[in-house]
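User: Can you predict the 3D structure for this chain?
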Amino acid sequence: MPRRKERGPWFWRGAIALMLTSVFGLFAAAAMNQPPATDSETNCRMDRQDPSHTLILVDQSDPFNATDIAWVRALLEDEARALPKYGRLTLSVPNAASPFDPVTVWSGCSPGSAAGANPVFQNPRMIEQAWQAKFHKPLMARTEEVLVDTVAPSSPLMEAMFTLGDRPDFQAGVPARRLILVSDLIQHSKDFSMYRAGAAWEAFESSPLMDLRPGLEGVAVVARVVPRQEYALPLGEVKAFWQRWFQDTGAEYGSVT
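Assistant: Here is the predicted structure, written as structure tokens:
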């Protein structure tokens, strides 16, 4: 019977190297999935490295009807679901009393949805529960406070967007920035009012707001028009005005619906 060949030192060295590589690989994978430190109230990263930021400005200078409220809820639901893990969402409303101080109704970051969970290291069901409890429910609860039957004396859209565009967490260092304007698009403030001057660009050129534009370079802007039973101005003219205004800010003005 032939003698079994003994394994040499190179075999054992290779086996040990393979084992160490596997162990280090597991540690590296675990380290890559180690979550960054986050703020306990907002769920946002402490290092401020937000992967995205979606700003939603809801203009309710005129009261919303039941249909308006339903589609605003649906819009927020879709935007919340679309955020990547640690992506930030901020809900704001214009401030008639102080036009350059829009009110931040809610701001927070997504802890990640079940769709983006890694099944090797994470439990999708627990991820969804955390998303609901820490992000979705607080957002929708504050949304209900905005969607109330109120009327504001003015609608300072430009002033609000100027301030929102200056937020430190909405600068060019954030990879993906979106601004969603939910409004009837009628600018109405002391410095420029479409009710008084119309939507002609020539009338706006003499306004104090003409040279005051937010820095929205690289920001994707979407306007969701709240329909009104009676529109004070031709909607086509209003849309054309805002298209030119946003182009001058450097924004990527995608659509008006």
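Confidence is low (pLDDT under 50) at residues 26-30. The domain at 52-256 is CATH 3.40.50 (Rossmann fold).
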